[in-house]
Amino acid sequence: MDKARVRVYLDDNPKPIIDQALPTDVTLDTRSLADGPHRLLIRAQGQSGHEGIEEISFHVHNGPGIIAARTIRSIRVAPRRAHRFRFGYG
Length: 90
Description:
This protein is mainly β.
């Protein structure tokens, strides 16, 4: 039986930017991204082999006093910071 994992893909890149065993905390530093729309594809696989997929669209604007908005669940995050995500299974 394999260990549960999460893989996170940015935009259309076929190589994951994050590939870690669950549970885990990951950080995405949006300062390294170009301004404009982006997309995260999150693929989590449990020990049984079942897979869950979630897509999160967000917009980055790295200027002062501007907010980068994450459209899923209406969460808003401030620019110029690394953003943490927690993944687990349950």
